[in-house]
Write a structure and sequence with these properties.
The complex is a heterodimer of chains A (409) and B (300). Chain A has helices spanning 2-24, 38-71, 81-87, 89-109, 112-137, 146-162, 167-187, 195-215, 217-220, 241-267, 270-280, 282-287, 292-318, 328-341, 346-362, 364-367, 370-384; strands at residues 25-28, 33-36. With 409 residues, chain A is mainly alpha-helical. Chain A folds into 2 domains: 2-67; 100-384, Orthogonal Bundle (ABC transporter involved in vitamin B12 uptake, BtuC), CATH 1.10.3470. Chain A has a two-stranded antiparallel ribbon. Chain B has 300 residues and is mainly alpha-helical. Chain B has one domain (2-286): ABC transporter involved in vitamin B12 uptake, BtuC (Orthogonal Bundle). Chain B has a two-stranded antiparallel sheet. In chain B, helix 1 packs antiparallel against helix 10 (246-266) and helix 5 crosses helix 6 (171-181). Chain B starts with a helix and ends in a 14-residue tail after the last helix. The chains are: A mainly alpha (409), B mainly alpha (300). Chains A and B meet through helix 1, strand 1, helix 8, helix 14 and helix 17 of A and helix 2, helix 3, helix 4, strand 1 and helix 9 of B.
């Protein structure tokens, strides 16, 4: 007890030392003044002390659960409570019904501002589900996902500028297809790359997309952005801003449902199983006769398709876009949604997207610390719960012997 | 001709900074096959610590060279401490995890450190004091190569030579090379692999901090986001030279710096960053092993 106490104090002192120049001192090089914030030192000490104890406790727990898993070799892993909820129709049906009612009534109970935020959160749900295909199912870490989102948004804005006759509804699939096209074009040269190289190249693509949009004045009108993008139309009826927002909200709900439907079907399809096999072991997967190029490209294309389509939605919701909406930050947010939710898990991703996007909107005090927390969450999730909040349950065939009641997988 | 020479010198300067940061990437990758995404952030923290130290010292009446030396030293110490702690928290618990896990953890650590500096200090650009004085003997050629540029070139050359000597002739260097070749075997012959990894992070961070302080003083302003671009470019340099290969990182940095400087000077400076990424993508597609690297066959 004494020893661990001493250790925690030492660690806390180490962090006080570590954070001293950045947390305590603030210099103003123009006025030549120094501000000493001694109080921060106390906070760091207390915080580090508490966090270190939590950290040790969590690491211990992780160790124990691993040992346990090794001892009970072959036994079925305990399902998480969230997963059990999902597998029991009696439990999740009323829940879904309730959710549907809430989703339907939402815009009539709360004001336009809330609805608008909800639309944004739903946009990130679709982005999360799209990236979930590439990262979660196929295991291709894509750090430039926002590029496809930008492609979708700009294709709607630009098509609308040059061919206004096409309108929102034809642009929605066009945006998706252009996104998918870029997914294939960019995916093609990097087929041979593995995990970490892939990450950095996609990061490069994401940044290139933003720089090109910013600098190609004649085509994209550069950093000024494009304004006056029409909202989604409904048979040419004129709607008030309020009405249009509510309409956009319902469209987004439909789009989320459609995305869930498609990704869910994809997950259990032949191509979905190929993706997961590729994620688990590329060499074994190719040796089993899976066409690597086709599988990877389809994962890229489908992931990019959703980003493109929802990009059109985003442009229509904002009615104004500029390159600053498509930075690395957005890619990082979408990635943390997928990581937090559980790679490959649809329900997890939806919950994570809603939490991560809505929480900073409603907890204003938290908003400043948003990216700090996202970063910490990504590290902690990888260490303590790499499978995410609600882990993806793979479909397995269970071989049951009815008479003996045994249950070996 | 003067314009070309000026571009050449600024390219060399840039390149040697990229090389300093790239060494950290390459050393870490060589030993644990991880892209340390947060390495650029260590560079940024080094620059910030130097700025703060220099600011405090200026107010308390220190002057000239003593500020440069002290700021540099303290920045190096702090960068080393951050690098060490980063490895212990974000990477060590993931030693045996699937490959995607430490990578995501690294991205998270990078976001965390960026926002930590943003919140603890400021989101704005801070003016960085000019730590390197203008030398009188540089006067005649000052339009081609400035005093800070000279200091950057000399310092990075010294650092790289020191690193090479360290890896070639010390016990720790030998242990590092052994761990790079085969971690399990190194452990079997009694090398403390965890310590080797820690030392690798510390050395890489110190080099990054040197780069950070020199760049801050050269460019004259820093903010919390400078580590991102510098990190990506240094990584490009490391890949260009052949990742895991130390002379390769130095060569890659210089080639990238020169190419970028020429492209910015003769073509267009708006697309400077696109150019660096273009080089990265081309190298990965055409020659993934890099200029000096050997192609490694994967065994099953």
């Amino acid at each position: 007890m004494m020893a661990s106490m001493k250790r925690s104090i030492l660690v806390a002192l180490w962090f006080v030392f570590l954070t001293f120049p950045l947390m305590v001192v603030r210099v103003n090089t123009l006025k030549n003044t120094v501000e000493w914030r001694w109080l921060n030192m106390v906070w760091v000490f207390v915080g580090a002390f508490v966090l270190h104890n939590l950290w040790r406790w969590a690491l211990d727990k992780r160790q124990k659960s691993r040992k346990k898993a090794e001892l009970e070799d072959g036994a079925e892993a305990d399902l998480h409570i969230g997963q059990r909820l999902l597998q029991e129709p009696k439990l999740y049906r009323p829940f879904l019904l309730g959710l549907a009612v809430v989703a339907l009534l939402f815009p009539w109970v709360l004001d336009v501002y809330q609805v608008n935020i909800m639309v944004l959160a739903l946009i990130f749900v679709v982005l999360g589900l799209g990236l979930n295909i590439t990262v979660g199912l196929a295991g291709l870490l894509d750090l430039g996902y926002v590029a496809f989102f930008a492609v979708g948004a700009y294709s709607y804005a630009l098509i609308n500028q040059h061919f206004p006759a096409l309108g929102f509804w034809s642009c929605l699939p066009i945006g998706g297809l252009i996104g998918a096209f870029f997914g294939i074009v960019l995916g093609f040269p990097i087929l041979r790359l593995r995990g970490d190289y892939l990450a950095i190249v996609t990061l490069g693509f994401g940044s290139i997309a933003k720089i090109v949009i910013e600098n190609w004045e004649e085509f994209t009108s550069g950093a000024k952005g494009i304004a006056n993008i029409p909202r989604p139309g409904l048979f040419g009826i004129d709607m008030s801003i309020e009405g249009a927002t509510i309409y956009t909200y319902y469209l987004m709900v439909l789009m989320v449902l459609f995305t869930i439907f498609v990704t869910n079907r994809l997950k259990d399809s032949r191509i979905g199983r190929a993706w997961m096999a590729l994620r688990e072991d590329e060499i074994a997967c190719v040796a089993m006769g899976v066409d690597m190029a086709r599988t990877k490209l389809s994962a890229y294309a489908l992931g990019a398709f959703w980003a493109g389509a929802v990009g059109v939605m985003f442009a229509a919701r904002n009615t104004y876009i500029n390159p600053n909406s498509f930075t690395f930050m957005e890619s990082a947010i979408v990635l943390s949604i997928v990581v937090l939710g559980g790679m490959g898990s649809i329900v997890g991703v939806i919950i994570a997207a809603l939490v991560l996007i809505l929480m900073p909107e409603y907890l204003r005090a938290f908003a400043d610390y948003r990216m700090l927390v996202f970063g910490a969450v990504m590290v902690l999730m990888m260490i303590f719960r790499p499978q995410g909040l609600i882990a993806n349950v793979r479909k397995t065939y269970a071989y049951r012997r009815a008479e003996r009641g045994e249950n070996h997988g | 001709m003067d314009y070309f020479l000026e571009l050449f010198c600024s390219g060399l300067t840039r390149g040697s900074i990229y090389a300093l940061i790239a060494l950290g990437y390459t050393m870490v990758y060589g030993i644990i096959q991880l892209i340390n995404f947060a390495h650029g952030e260590i560079y940024m923290i080094g620059a910030f610590v130097a700025l703060i130290v220099a600011g405090v010292l200026t107010i308390y009446g220190f002057s000239g060279f003593s500020i440069l030396i002290l700021a540099m030293l303290i920045a190096m110490i702090y960068a080393a401490a951050y690098g060490y702690t980063l490895e212990k928290i974000a990477y060590q618990p993931l030693r045996n995890a699937p490959r995607l896990s430490p990578l995501i953890s690294a991205i998270g650590a990078s976001l965390f450190l960026q926002n930590y500096v943003l919140l603890a200090q400021t989101p704005d650009f801070l003016p960085f004091p000019q730590l390197v004085p203008d030398f009188a003997f540089m006067e005649p050629i000052a339009h081609i190569i400035g005093s800070s540029e000279l200091v950057i070139l000399v310092t990075s050359a010294i650092s790289m030579v020191a690193l090479t000597l360290l890896i070639k002739y010390t016990r720790m260097g030998k242990a590092m090379r052994a761990t790079q070749q085969d971690m399990v075997m190194a452990r079997l012959v009694g090398i403390n692999v965890d310590r080797v990894i820690s030392v690798t992070f510390i050395i890489g961070s110190v080099l990054a901090a040197i780069g950070g302080v020199l760049v801050g003083s050269y460019i004259g302003q820093i903010n919390f986001y400078i580590g991102f671009m510098a990190g990506v470019k240094a990584f490009t340099a490391a890949v260009l030279g052949g990742i895991g290969n130390i002379p390769g990182a130095a060569l890659g940095g210089l080639v990238l710096g020169l190419a970028e400087s020429m492209a910015a000077g003769y073509i267009s400076s708006a697309y400077e960053d696109v150019f660096a990424f273009g080089v990265l993508v081309l190298i990965l597609i055409l020659r993934p092993a890099g200029l000096l690297g050997k192609a490694v066959k994967q065994k099953v």
